[in-house]
Amino acid sequence: MSESAPLLQIEDLHATVDGFEILKGVDLTLRTGEVHALMGPNGSGKSTLAKILMGSPRYKVTKGRILFKAEDVTRWPPTDRGKAGMFLAFQHPEAIPGISVIQFLRQALSNRTGIDLTVLELRLKVMDAMKELGIETSFADRYLNEGFSGGERKRNEVLQMAVLRPDLAIMDETDSGLDIDALRVVAEGVNKLTGPERGFLIITHYQRLLDYVTPDMVHIFDDGTIVDSGGPELAIRLEQEGYESFRTVLTQT
Questions:
Q1: In this structure, which topology does domain 8-252 adopt according to CATH?
Q2: Which of 71, 167, 206, 220 is in the most buried spot, having the most CB atoms within 10 Å?
């Protein structure tokens, strides 16, 4: 990737699911080191965008393209996107009985880097990440998300980011359903992972996560497209005025 190329470039992206158009022309540029927040009401297409960015086969891109590190990844399968450095933190992470957190991380890290760490090497790496994030080390040997609270599932997603070190982390409503303590833990984890070597696209419904994670850019998403973009003050305005004011502007234009 050239130094001037964006980390993520979305160009006039249109997509359908089961014949219905969901994305209606999305344009977004995110550079390495930046944190962008994508905010929108339920049903606006935010989560659809996240899944399409990671290559979900359920959705069909009908127009436009996705560039990651200057490469067109629009038709790449999810595994190739993950190996290239893209990561999705799910809104509702699934439980996988019989597979421990550390076993999952070992396979994921091998797929991401092509390097097979020994069990001891991986355990030390995971323990270091857990201590840095304030996660109990016993967490590593529990089955993946089985019996986890909502907050534990979301913290596990942050732990995966800490171990895998993706270039682009897409967080799909990671703050959904969290109490204030769990929200702070997740936010602190995100803040520790931000830096000049990676970018974040944080998809959220509410402004409250942005009380702890300060974005470089905020995008308002509605009806399958970005209707406004600006700095952190845009999230504050949204909190005060609601989405209806942005819909009014969109209708007038």
A1: Rossmann fold (3.40.50)
A2: 220
